[in-house]
Amino acid sequence: MSLKLYNTLNKRKEDFKPINPDHVTLYVCGPTVYNYAHVGNARPVVVFDLLVRLLRHDYKKVTYARNITDIDDKIIEAAQESGDAIADITEKYAGIYEADMAALNAGPPDLTPKATDYIAQMIGMTAALIEKGHAYEKDGHVMFSVLSMSNYGELSGRKLEDMIAGARVDVASYKNDAADFILWKPSNDDQPGWDSPWGRGRPGWHLECSCMIEDNFGKTIDIHGGGLDLIFPHHENEIAQSRCAHEGAPLANYWMHNGYLTVDGEKMSKSLGNFVTVHDLLEEFPGKGEAIRMCLLSAHYRQPVDFSRDGIKQAQRQLDRWYRLTDGVEAGEVPETILVALRDDLNTPKAIAELNALAKKAVNDDAAKKQLKAAANLFGVLEKEKREWFDATVDENAISENEIEKLIVERAEAKMNKDFSRSDEIRNQLSEQGISLLDGPDGTTWEKR
RNA sequence: GGCGCGGUGGCGGAAUGGCUACGCAGCGGAUUGCAAAUCCGUCUAUACCGGUUCGAUUCCGGUCCGCGCCUCCA
Asked: How confident is the model at residue A399 (pLDDT cuts 50, 70, 90)?
């Protein structure tokens, strides 16, 4: 079965046909690096990481790019507030971002272009757009002229008249039209800037993605992704810039957008203040990044996921079980059922159901165990050793393995002497320290939990 | 105001014009000195009102409720 993807452009599931069947290209909008990423920010990262894993399974070569916005007014503000240099801030948070996402088993993309490395390209595209009559300079600003484009609004399904009519935007003096957007803006002396034909300034937000794609991939890529909230204006404006700069060539053939992470039904966002950072969550659930990942994949990617600690715990238990089943097992082939589910527009809940079916089978079937391991790995979980997974819960200094083993021996003796109050006391004592004892036919083993 | 999304069991969450997955929790059983873990079994749902249909949770219309975008936002 071939891959089907829901395309925001047509609001339909479509058969995925890459431009070059041997090389799939995809670009996902990455972070603006001025503080910690929250769980909602992590959702697209995990979703598109899974997509890339699937594409890598199905295609010879995949190139995945995710940008870093390291020039932006929010970063400038953060620098002014903290007194730190902009480069220090962006480097620090880019590093934290990469580490936090890696903890969710979302490895770095093939390409991680930074906006500040594309200033020349951005100036070039801006100049080209002016030359082609799609942009104009006014009061030191270079604006994209939305009216110069016939089909502006094709991605978000908006009509220009509607936008202008319902515009809550103040029409700035440098705009010819309320819907026009910034390609290049002037910088004050205390703001970072680069020399340009329009004076010292800095790029508008939408421009970097257009230029990075052009520079790394050419005019048209296969898949462009991001969160739902990027459809308008960000992706709409990327399309406008790129199409107008490229004689109408599409920027991407497939546009994919993940739904929101919500908290009590409301979108998790920095402005609402209802966010939890991935960083904090990893401290709260040490070593359980995979559980957070599972949690984010538990609903279909276009549906909302309501964030809760309970959801993470639930995912953790599921993983506990799969880890026990696949201890020491080598990954085999990914079974077709899982692939079919994922190729159907990344139906992760269906795939998880199949994973559970496999786990049930694996109870007394070694081949199924290998399949489970392989399928889970494709999902981006079960990438650790069982011991490592369970041990992560408790901090190392709490109790040594030696002490645990000694207590187990003591408890075994107590049990032999039918001194059950002593044996239960030992079990409870260990339990309080996060150690669970498992009495099996071959003696007692333990897990941290 | 414009455009859009969604309402499935105690909870999470798929799918489908006819029999509604899967997980968590619960319950019963096996196992256990008792537990834990594991295994087996099991209860509970398609917001409301109409329409189309032999038959709708699924298609259509309306109502109510929740949410989102239109401004930075994953």
From this structure: confident
